[in-house]
Specification:
With about 375 residues, the protein is an alpha/beta fold. It contains nine helices and 20 strands.
Length: about 375
């Protein structure tokens, strides 16, 4: 038996007992050691704002349409940042005692089938808590850089940093996605990385990771786009960021990111918007500066790169990043570690705005609670 997080209705979160299936031939069983909480996507289910809850997703057409919602309450097993200890195995693909990163939702235990479930065995030199980024969250951010590389080089991309190396990069949003994306850009030798956010505490984290920072909306008479364009000059009448990574699910952040770009620059959008886009003024900078807006969504890599840049390679790039930035990420980004029993209260408080966090991790391991 194990426990699984269940969202019974908007604002109603609980843990329920779950009977585990038998371990199939070729499968293995995990005891969860760490489970990272996404304060973006997961909270849309707690708030009731996720589009799957209100409409039908047609995968063949790639459209949301009116009809029976594709997902209905109760919603169980959300979450995509898990690390588990292999406690029993019936396959030579993974050994008992191994730590693996997977995406199986907030569960205390899981039975995996290597033919159906993707897993990444964690190296011994990696902090297990940072393993929550290896299977999915890190590849999300790495895929953003891959889109920037493809924008510049098309299918001739060789290295993850081909779109940022030697270039001036702005990252809008200092949540987990923005912070990891900034670290990827710095690791790939961007000429300069500036993180823009409205929250001083989050800007302090970005600075601690080594990025330059710029406050948004602190001074009502200031304009971060003007500040950045005065700072970054390419030629006469050519100022601004070479590439912007938009990592905040607010349309005002998208509007700001577009204003920061140099003429004919590209914004790579990693955000998830659940509202309209009234604040994105496409008749102004977007039109007059000939800008490009690209959506980087983890469901696909840029066209023509899937043969060389699969999810496994993006996870490898994530492990490389974590080896370089791991201690700083552990110290500054993982802000809350709570037990599974506290998970319902944590998600309810986050959704209601009663609590703020950067990266929360569920873990019942006593040695990790001080993180």
């Amino acid at each position: 038996m194990g426990n699984v997080l269940s969202i019974e209705a908007p604002g109603e979160v609980c843990l329920i007992e779950e009977k585990l299936p038998g371990i199939p031939e070729g499968g293995f069983m995990l005891a969860t050691t760490h489970s990272g909480v996404s304060a973006g996507t997961e909270l849309t289910y707690v708030k009731g704002t996720n589009p799957y809850l209100a409409s039908t997703w047609d995968p063949a057409l790639g459209l949301f349409t009116e009809g029976t919602p594709s997902i209905a309450y109760p919603v169980r097993g959300i979450g995509y940042m898990q690390v588990g200890l292999v406690v029993e195995t019936r396959t030579r693909a993974v050994s008992e005692g191994a730590l693996v990163a997977m995406c199986y939702g907030h569960r205390t235990a899981y039975v995996a089938d290597p033919m159906a479930d993707r897993f990444v065995e964690l190296p011994d030199d990696l902090d297990p808590m940072l393993g929550v980024y290896v299977a999915h969250m890190g590849p999300i951010c790495a895929n953003g850089l891959l889109h920037a590389a493809h924008d510049l080089h098309g299918p001739a991309v060789q290295q993850l940093g081909d779109g940022v190396r030697g270039r001036r990069v702005a990252v809008v949003g200092a949540g987990v996605v923005g912070l990891l994306t900034a670290c990827f850009a710095m690791s790939c030798d961007a000429a300069e990385v500036v993180v823009v956010d409205e929250t001083p505490a989050r800007l302090a984290i970005a600075a601690a990771l080594g990025a330059n920072v710029l406050a948004a909306d602190v001074d009502p008479d200031g304009d971060p786009a003007v500040d950045l364009k005065r700072r970054w000059r390419h030629a006469r009448d050519d100022r601004g960021a070479d590439v912007v990574f938009q990592c905040r699910g607010q349309t005002r952040a998208l509007a700001l990111g577009l204003r920061m770009l140099r003429p004919q620059g590209t914004l790579v959008d990693l955000a998830f918007y659940t509202q309209g886009a009234q604040e994105v003024r496409l008749g102004e900078e977007f039109h007059h500066n000939g800008l490009t807006l690209r959506c980087a969504q983890i469901g696909r890599v840029p066209r023509g790169l899937s043969h060389a840049w699969d999810r496994e390679r993006l996870s490898h790039e994530t492990i490389t990043l974590l080896r370089r930035y791991g201690s700083r990420l552990r110290e500054h980004v993982i802000t809350d570690v709570v037990g599974f029993a506290e998970a319902p209260e944590l998600l309810s408080d986050l959704a209601a705005g009663r609590r703020q966090t950067v990266q929360a991790v569920l873990s019942d391991h006593v040695e990790d609670e001080g993180g």
